[in-house]
């Protein structure tokens, strides 16, 4: 099965027949080399990418290009960052076969703790941030204890948590809103790195950072490819490999240009990018990530393979608490204060992002990147409809239907996969 | 000519690829207790499912005559309406509902306005309970009763339906001696009331005590019907009928050179996770390097429970017993420790407990050995793929790539993935629970060849199997397990199916 750089025509023919036999089965894999198999690689996730492109294009046309304007793109990033941060944690919870209904309340209580320290007690911004993160970790450990060690379904534990921490938010805030934050704190969500290197009508620093990221991506991909060649695994043919990198680089740099011509690089995008990168690696490359998928895929088999299920479940919830705290800091910073009702129904947006992004209701399936695209899809849709002046009620209905259709697509796929056996 | 309440004529039932029943005939006289015997998988349960309408008319060939009429049942409701009630081995009671609610589930006693008349229901339930000799309040939730009493509730439920023919599938498998005796007494009592019973059981001495006739089924065919009044019909006679099959040469040759002892278990005792009874009772066995040891036992004997409790105490509650690996006592208190100690356990039900069906071969293959394939918590995907490729080659797993989803493979190939997965943990002893269940003959041969390669490489292998010919074909020694106790140990040269079956159906431990 040695197939590396070689001529592409012959392997392509062979792969096409393989693809026919095992179409979705060959998914996920490294072993494919032509563009068709790359597309059908994982219908579940490639479906969401296609849907995303279609939605972006649709709203670009409907809004006459406004939705892709530099200012609006920056807006979308700022406006949906905290949902995306929550969705990272949520997709991991969902892959393991659980759910977390409490994250909206945790966003509120962590933001409230931070606000009380920074606004009421005049502490520096970083004290507020650290306190919020500590509270988030403690809440995560609380949920993890009940789910993992007492064995209560996460639905119940986090439903209780949703009520509990909403009440705690009211206690902490004495039922009143606190604002405004100091300008330093406000920069977390609304700050930009701008003008560091100058530039006429655009921010050169932003472009440089994205340029470095693209080069690092290309280098990383190249290294991975080299390693696979060394192990005699199938890899995409070299022209295809280059084409893939060029496409990704073009999209990323176009995005960077739009940011650079607006207000520059938002700090929150840096936070988000680091989180996506770290959690992408955690889920895909680490033993912990594997164990999460194994627990969600077949709990009994995971247990009998030596996975310490309780420990893994505990840390999944600790992690969710941590990310909810990060989202709480970002949200409080963006809204420049803490409100008793902050974060209401965020859990539903995060859960929707994970499911639209291809996570399975039954567990064992899902990706961080998929959840991000799922979250952005909802974000672009809501934003587009707002630009068009669509009524709030219609927006809500559309969101609901998109979630339903996305999961229906997932169920349909699974049934088809089952019957082709 | 005797009066037959039931005649099943030339019943043939095929599943895709398998003929489960072939031209089976069964005649049951009115008012008798009729036993059906056969090995696991002989077709007893399938036959009863045909009779009770679980497999509706048209799904099988042949003719059923019940109470003088040709019947064709479309479902369980039809057969119950005709007076046939089946009580399955796994009781079908709702634990949170009361005794009375369970008895009248699906045939509720309606009063005015169509509402349930609970006074009437409880009064009738009370009467039924007395008739089966169960002194319990009808409002007690069934979950609070022991298995023996639940069995009686099932019978009371059957009686509430005007039963003419009662079918009991392994009624005493989960019962202790007292409860069994009571149940058998009750079946006799029903017989006096004119109710005909069919009883499926592995406990041959019980059959000897209670049955009027015994029909033996083997490989989906009726072998014979024995008249239990005939003094020549003994337990041994029944066993001969059950196993009387030539040992086929399905098994690859192997030279046996057992070496040092690898695993020894002494006085291993395990309690049921929720009920207060011993599932494994002071079991002791050992296996050497380069040796295949079989564990033979009928369904419910505690085979899987024994293996799983040894494998990191993943079943039941450990009571006592010692585990030695290479002569050194080992405490493997969880699965991870057991794997580290060098034990591997391939489960009986690979789909439910063995594999993550929605994931690919490579990741299933590495699931139990991620420590070996990772550095500082990061999995080396290339090493993982390499390991999976090696497994695919050495096990001859038929799949397009190691990224193929395991759920799409055939049973035999799935089983090879399971073996490959456990070999990757580099175990000293492999416990294989029903390694060839549900896979075709060709794949079975391949699995046996793999087992032979493993022992040639010095591994110790324990095989648990319901198929006696398989154990006789591949093992060096066979231990027999009955009701959680090891009842004997035979070198394969001295063993045959009759001797094993005798030990497997023995209630008490013999010396030796």
TrEMBL record, chain A:
Transmembrane segments: 46-65, 77-96, 101-119, 125-145, 152-173, 200-219, 240-259, 265-282, 312-331, 352-381
Main location: membrane
One Gene Ontology term, aspect cellular component: plasma membrane
Alphabetized UniProt keyword annotations: Cell inner membrane, Cell membrane, Membrane, Sugar transport, Transmembrane, Transmembrane helix, Transport
Location(s), subcellular: Cell membrane
One GO MF term: transmembrane transporter activity
Record membrane topology: Multi-pass membrane protein
Keyword set includes Manganese: no
Free-text function comment from the UniProt entry: Part of the binding-protein-dependent transport system for D-xylose. Probably responsible for the translocation of the substrate across the membrane.
Protein name stated in the entry: Xylose transport system permease protein XylH
Native source organism of the sequence: Klenkia marina
Automatic annotation (TrEMBL), chain B:
Record-given protein name: Monosaccharide ABC transporter ATP-binding protein, CUT2 family (TC 3.A.1.2.-)
Residue span(s) of domain ABC transporter: 6-244, 263-508
Xref: InterPro entries: AAA+_ATPase, ABC_carbohydrate_import_ATPase, ABC_transporter-like_ATP-bd, ABC_transporter-like_CS, L-arabinose_ABC_transporter, P-loop_NTPase
Gene Ontology MF terms in the entry: ATP binding; ATP hydrolysis activity
Listed SUPFAM superfamilies: P-loop containing nucleoside triphosphate hydrolases
Subcellular location: Cell membrane
Domain of life, source organism: Bacteria
Presence of keyword ATP-binding: yes
Membrane topology per record: Peripheral membrane protein
Location (main, coarse): membrane
PANTHER family in alphabetical order: CARBOHYDRATE TRANSPORT ATP-BINDING PROTEIN MG119-RELATED, XYLOSE IMPORT ATP-BINDING PROTEIN XYLG
């Amino acid at each position: 099965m040695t197939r590396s750089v070689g001529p592409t025509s012959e392997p392509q023919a062979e792969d096409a027949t393989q693809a026919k036999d095992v179409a979705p089965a060959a998914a996920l894999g490294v072993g494919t080399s032509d563009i068709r198999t790359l597309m059908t690689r994982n219908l579940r996730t490639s479906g969401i990418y296609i849907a995303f492109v279609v939605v972006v294009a649709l709203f670009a046309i409907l809004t006459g290009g406004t939705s892709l304007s530099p200012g609006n793109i920056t807006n979308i990033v700022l406006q949906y960052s905290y949902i995306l941060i929550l969705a990272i944690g949520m997709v991991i919870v969902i892959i393991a076969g659980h759910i977390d209904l409490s994250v909206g309340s945790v966003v509120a209580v962590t933001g409230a703790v931070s606000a009380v320290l920074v606004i009421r007690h005049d502490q520096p911004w970083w004290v507020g941030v650290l306190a919020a993160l500590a509270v988030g970790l403690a809440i995560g450990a609380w949920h993890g204890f009940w789910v993992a060690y007492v064995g209560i379904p996460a639905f119940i534990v986090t439903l209780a948590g949703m009520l509990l921490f909403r009440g705690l938010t009211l206690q902490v805030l004495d039922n009143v809103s606190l604002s405004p934050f100091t300008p330093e704190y406000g920069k977390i969500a609304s700050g930009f790195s701008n003008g560091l290197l100058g530039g006429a009508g655009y921010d050169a620093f932003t472009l440089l950072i994205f340029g470095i990221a693209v080069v690092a991506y290309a280098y990383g991909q190249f290294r991975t490819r080299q390693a696979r060649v060394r192990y005699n695994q199938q890899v995409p043919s070299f022209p295809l490999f280059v084409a893939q990198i060029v496409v990704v680089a073009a999209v990323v740099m176009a995005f960077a240009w739009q940011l650079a011509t607006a207000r520059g690089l938002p700090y929150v995008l840096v936070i988000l990018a680091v989180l996506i990168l770290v959690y992408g690696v955690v889920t895909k490359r680490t033993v912990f990530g594997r164990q999460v998928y194994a627990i969600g895929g077949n709990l009994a088999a995971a247990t009998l393979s030596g996975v310490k299920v309780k420990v893994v479940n505990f840390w999944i919830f600790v992690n969710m608490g941590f990310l909810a705290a990060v989202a709480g800091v970002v949200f409080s910073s963006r809204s420049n204060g803490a409100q008793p009702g902050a974060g209401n129904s965020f859990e539903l947006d995060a859960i929707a992002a994970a499911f639209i992004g291809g996570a399975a209701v039954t567990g064992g399936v899902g990706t961080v990147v998929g959840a991000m695209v799922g979250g952005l899809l909802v974000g672009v849709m809501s934003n587009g409809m707002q630009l068009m002046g669509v009524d709030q009620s219609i927006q809500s209905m559309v969101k609901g239907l998109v979630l339903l259709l996305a999961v229906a697509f997932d169920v349909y796929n699974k049934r088809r996969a089952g019957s082709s056996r | 000519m005797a009066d037959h309440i039931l005649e099943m004529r030339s019943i043939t039932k095929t599943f895709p690829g398998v003929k489960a029943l072939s031209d089976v005939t069964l005649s049951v006289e009115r008012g008798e207790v009729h036993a059906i015997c056969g090995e696991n998988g002989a077709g007893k349960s399938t036959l009863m499912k045909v009779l009770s309408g679980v497999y509706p008319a048209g799904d099988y060939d042949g003719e059923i005559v019940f109470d003088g009429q040709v019947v064709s049942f479309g479902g369980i409701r039809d057969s119950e309406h005709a007076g046939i009630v089946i009580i399955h081995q796994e009781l079908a009671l709702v634990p949170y509902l009361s005794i009375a609610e369970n008895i009248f589930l699906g045939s509720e006693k309606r009063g005015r306005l169509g509402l349930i008349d609970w006074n009437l229901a409880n009064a009738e339930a009370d009467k039924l309970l007395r008739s089966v000799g169960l002194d319990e309040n009808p409002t007690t939730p069934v979950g609070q009763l022991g298995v023996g009493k639940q069995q009686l509730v099932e019978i009371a439920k059957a009686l509430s339906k005007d039963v003419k023919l009662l079918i009991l599938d392994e009624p005493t498998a989960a019962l202790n001696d007292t409860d069994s005796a009571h149940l058998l007494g009750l079946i006799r009592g029903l017989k006096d009331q004119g109710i005909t019973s069919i009883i499926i059981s592995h406990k041959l001495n019980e059959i000897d005590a209670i049955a009027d006739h015994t029909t033996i089924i083997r490989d989906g065919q009726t072998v014979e019907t024995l008249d239990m009044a005939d003094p020549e019909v003994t337990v041994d006679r029944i066993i001969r009928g059950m196993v009387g099959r030539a040992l086929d040469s399905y098994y690859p040759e192997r030279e046996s050179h057992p070496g040092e002892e690898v695993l020894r278990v002494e006085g291993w005792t395990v309690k049921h996770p929720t009920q207060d009874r011993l599932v494994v009772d002071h079991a002791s066995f050992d296996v050497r390097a380069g040796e295949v040891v079989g564990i033979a036992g009928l369904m419910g004997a505690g085979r899987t429970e024994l293996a799983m409790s040894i494998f990191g105490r993943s079943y039941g509650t450990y009571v006592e017993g010692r585990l030695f690996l290479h002569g050194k006592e080992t405490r493997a208190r969880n699965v991870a420790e057991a794997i580290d100690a060098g034990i591997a356990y391939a489960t009986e039900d690979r789909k439910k407990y063995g594999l993550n069906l929605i994931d690919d071969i490579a990741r299933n293959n590495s699931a139990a050995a991620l420590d070996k394939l990772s550095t500082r918590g990061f999995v080396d995907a290339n090493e993982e793929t390499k390991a999976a490729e090696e497994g695919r080659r050495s096990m001859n797993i038929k799949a397009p790539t190691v990224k193929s989803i395991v759920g799409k493979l055939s049973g035999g190939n799935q089983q090879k993935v399971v073996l490959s997965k456990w070999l990757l943990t580099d175990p000293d002893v492999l416990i294989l629970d029903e390694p060839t269940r549900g896979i075709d003959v060709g794949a079975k041969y391949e699995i046996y060849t793999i087992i032979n390669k493993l022992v040639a490489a010095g591994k110790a292998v324990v095989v648990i199997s319901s198929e006696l010919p398989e154990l006789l074909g591949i093992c060096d020694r066979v231990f027999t397990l009955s009701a959680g106790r090891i009842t004997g140990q035979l070198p394969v040269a001295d063993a045959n199916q009759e001797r094993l079956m005798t030990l497997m159906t023995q209630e008490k431990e013999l010396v030796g």
